[in-house]
Amino acid sequence: MAGIRIFETPVRKEWIDYNGHLRDAYYLVIFSEAIDALMDRIGLDAGYRARTGGTLYTVEVHLHYLEEVKAADTAVVTARLLGSDHKRIHVALELLRAGHTNVAAAAEVMLLHVRQSEGKVATAPLPAEATAALAALTAAGAGMEAGAPGSRRMELRPARTP
């Protein structure tokens, strides 16, 4: 397993599509819930959000679908911190099926810390506690190799003529 285990959920029957596997949108739902678990782990939990108006916004996601996830599976998500600064977090998430070693899906996500107040949103520095927790997670994941490809530019290349 490449990364620190942060979230686990059974795959729900209503998430399964007409092909008999996890509908594409629900991979992102699982990753989104894993980001909530990451927020809890670094101290940006519900209490913090209620007290300060501070939260994370997702500003970019690159998602790779690698293997099918079925109704009987339990999704396990791991995280590797790729970088962070005073208000951004760059994280790689990998979704595995419990009991399997291959990565079923991978997401690379850029998160931005903001404060919400009186209907307005503005970027804001991460609190010191979150910065320290991020540093600890970065250190814990140091040297862990990715189990899936990282993000890359998506494009259609012109067909070669013979």
Class from helix and strand fractions: alpha+beta
Average residue pLDDT: 92
Report the end-to-end length measured between terminal Cα atoms. 43 Å
CATH hierarchy, class: Alpha Beta
Residue stretches low in confidence (pLDDT < 50, at least 5 long) are none
Task: Tell me the number of helical segments per DSSP (H or I, 4 or more residues long).
Answer: 3
Total discrete domains: 1
Query: Which oligomeric state applies?
Result: single chain
Order of SSEs, N→C?
A: EHHEEEEEH
User: What share of residues are in beta strands?
Assistant: 35-45%
The largest sheet is: 6 strands, antiparallel
CATH topology: Thiol Ester Dehydrase, Chain A
CATH fourth-tier homologous superfamily: Hotdog Thioesterase
Q: In the CATH hierarchy, what is the architecture at level 2?
A: Roll
Gyration radius (Cα, Å) is 17 Å
The percentage helix is 10-25%
- Strand runs, count: 6
Tell me, briefly, the overall form: globular
Structure description:
- The protein has 162 residues and is α+β, with helices and mostly antiparallel strands.
- Helix content is 24%, strand content 36%.
- Strands 1, 2, 3, 4, 5 and 6 form a 6-stranded antiparallel sheet that branches.
- The radius of gyration is 17 Å and the shape is globular.
